[in-house]
From TrEMBL:
It comes from Brachypodium distachyon. This is Vacuolar ATPase assembly integral membrane protein VMA21 homolog. Residues 98-107 have a biased composition (Basic and acidic residues). One of its GO terms (biological process) is vacuolar proton-transporting V-type ATPase complex assembly. One of its GO terms (cellular component) is endoplasmic reticulum-Golgi intermediate compartment membrane. Required for the assembly of the V0 complex of the vacuolar ATPase (V-ATPase) in the endoplasmic reticulum.
Length: 107
């Protein structure tokens, strides 16, 4: 259980940090070639890449979740199954006293 929480926490942090780092890199022109773009093109490119980075992180998280295999198949509670089978075999009070079979017969 703690491995699942750890994966979720790390993925959540990366999902917040990646777009902020991309926008920061474009704003301070850390990435090569960004200074050649116009300010509006820098804004568009940084926003687009930030959105793409979030989607990539979500996709990676889904991939990791689908790759996990359960250690054992979940099994129903035996006491619940026994009670359910017993309740199916017992006639209900409407089945015992109602012999009209839906024809509207009044006793």
């Amino acid at each position: 259980m703690s491995a699942v929480i750890t994966k979720f926490a790390v993925t959540s942090m990366v999902m917040w940090m990646a777009p902020v780092a991309i926008v920061y890199g474009f704003y301070y022109q850390i990435f090569p070639g960004v200074s050649k773009l116009s300010p509006s093109a820098q804004t568009m490119a940084s926003g687009f890449l930030a959105v793409i980075s979030v989607n990539l992180v979500i996709g990676f998280y889904i991939y990791m979740a689908m790759k996990e295999t359960p250690h054992q198949e979940p099994q129903p509670d035996p006491a619940f199954l026994a009670n359910a089978k017993a309740s199916i075999n017992q006639p209900t009070s409407s089945q015992v006293s109602d012999d009209s079979h839906g024809k509207g017969k009044v006793e």
